[in-house]
Amino acid sequence: MTRRYWNIKLKEMMKAGVHFGHGTRKWNPRMASYISAKRKGIHITNLTRTARFLSAACDLVFDAASRGKQFLIVGTKNEAADSVARAAIKARCHYVNKKWLGGMLTNWSTTKTRLQKFGDLRMEQKMGRLNRLPKRDAAMLKRQLSRLQRYLGGIKYMRGLPDIVIIVDQHKEYTALRECITLGIPTICLIDTNCDPDLGDISIPANDDAIASIRLILNKLVFAICEGRSSYIINP
User: Fold this and answer.
1) Which of 53, 60, 88, 224 is 20 to 30 A from 3 (CA-CA)?
2) CA-CA distance, 113 to 5, in Å (whole number)?
């Protein structure tokens, strides 16, 4: 795996609040080695370890992107949704930021059928055919289109299973994580002090509740993906 310098600074992470964990009563004992201290009833994450695992994750996505691999970013909590969409669009990744529909990956045939239906409806709308239908039928199809856009809009161009899945808040996105484990899809998980660090292939200990923390982690990964994609374009 390629080793590169990703400019991950402890001061920058502290400013973004990456080190703040959950309250000491809400923690997973398996996170003990990732915690450096307790402060006012809150666990403090060891940022040296965060930097180490974030660097490893950047190396992984850089190498994968340089080989043309596809990524899916998952983060449906309110604090993560906008950052997930922006990061995915910037790096030309697929994303889910509203709701994870059970079986989205493990029942890919059903998801593929939904995506085909979504594509058909988008084309019908683009061609103006929905407006030529009876009002009741048009309204029903437009509601269906709106729902599909909300839940599948971020994966509308996904033609097969992703090669790597990046998960923001392992605890919240546990269903998505289990599907990846079942299918053997490598995962990079942003984990807070209430998570299990052994479930993801690379687990990055960080505050998964602060927008600034989530954005910083995603920005580092996105930069690495974009660098890898540039390498792939230059040396296909």
Assistant:
1) 88
2) 42
CATH 3.40.50.970, applies to 108-153: no
Beta partners for residue 164, in sequence order: 71
Residue 189 tokens, joined:
């998980």
DSSP state of 196: -
Positive or negative torsion for Cα 62, 98, 101, 199: positive
Question: In this structure, what token pair is assigned to residue 222?
Answer: 């996105």
> Which residues are CB-neighbours of 133 under 8 A, at least 6 positions away?
141
Please report where in the chains the tokens 């856009």 appear, as a residue: 149
pTM: 0.93
Please choose, from the candidates 149, 56, 34, the residue with its C-alpha nearest in 3D space to the C-alpha of residue 98.
149
How many helices and strands (H and E) does the chain possess? 7, 8
Orientation of helix 211-234 relative to helix 47-66, angle to 10°: 30
CATH architecture observed for domain 21-105+161-234: 3-Layer(aba) Sandwich (3.40)
**Coil, strand or helix: which one is 190?**
strand
CB 15 within 8 A of CB 43: no
Q: Which helix (H) or strand (E) holds 223?
A: helix 211-234
Strand order in the sheet with 202-205: 94-96, 71-74, 164-168, 187-191, 202-205
Q: CB-side exposure of 217: number of CA atoms within 13 Å?
A: 36
Does residue 209 have a pLDDT over 70? Answer: yes
Q: Which residue has the higher pLDDT, 227 or 137?
A: 227
